[in-house]
Amino acid sequence: xxxxxxxxxxxxxxxxxxxxxxxxxxxxxxxxxxxxxxxxxxxxxxxxxxxxxxxxxxxxxxxxxxxxxxxxxxxxxxxxxxxxxxxxxxxxxxxxxxxxxxxxxxxxxxxxxxxxxxxx
Length: 120
Description:
alpha/beta, six-stranded mixed beta barrel, 19% helix
């Protein structure tokens, strides 16, 4: 029963993301690749990057924006706060802190296909 429910969630997420405009054209919502990082350097917003809190990097969203990120492989979601710029690798739309990546089950793989939605 749990696998069926997970499959339904993943299918619904993929269906919802397939109708969205690509992230490069419309920054409020999108789908694409995600990666994670755990540096301790300063972020583009000026705060120190802390891999233990739920933050992320996005190319154009305003600092402080809250974004819900969904892992398309397993349906798990996490809400992060944008505090940095990036990613700068083609095909990737968001870089997550290690804590955020762990919440959606992508630490071991390093990358995942995700959809994101601005919530505030």
